[in-house]
Amino acid sequence: MKAHYATFAHYNEWANRRLYDHAAKLSDAEYRADRGAFFKSMHGTLNHLLTADWVWMHRFTGEGPSPTRLDAIQHEKFADLRAAREAEDRRIIAFVDGLSEDKLAGSIRYRRVSTPEEFVQPLAPALAHFFNHQAHHRGQAHTILCSFGRRDLVLDLLGYQREVDTGRI
Prior knowledge:
- By secondary structure, this protein is mainly α.
- It has seven helices and two strands, in the order αααααββαα.
- It has one domain: Four Helix Bundle (Hemerythrin (Met), subunit A) (Up-down Bundle), CATH 1.20.120.450.
- The model has no long low-confidence stretch (mean pLDDT 96).
C-alpha cells in the first residue's frame, strides 16, 4: 500500500509543478480574476490547495501550520506561494516516504476546521482523500486556465506515469 501512496505523493508534486508553470504565464489580472470557481480565482484556488494541504499535514504529523479558514490567502505574491507549494510538496513526499505499513494501517485523530468535535479516521483512507482533494481543485485550476484559452496543460496520472516509464522524470 505504501508504494501506492508514494506514487501519488510524487505525482502530486509533478502535477503542482506543471500547474504553477502554466499559472505563471497568466497576467496578474487573469491570475486574480474571479472565474466562478469555488475559491473564485487561480490565486484563491492555489492558496486553498496549500491551505488544505497544511491542514491535512498537520493532522497527519502534528507539525506545521494549521490554518483556521479554508479560504485563507497564505501568500499574496505568486512567487512566495510557489515557494511554499514546492516546500509543502517536498514535505508530503518525505512524510509518505517515512510511513511504514503499520503506520498506514493506523488511525489519526483530528478536529475539522469548521466544527469542534474530534474525529478518528484510518490513515490510509484519509491519505486517499488528501490526494483526491488535491486533484479535485487542480481540476478547477485547470478549468480557470482553459477559460483564458490555455488548453495545453496535461495533469493526468497517466501522463505522469508515462514520463516516469520513459525516464523523463
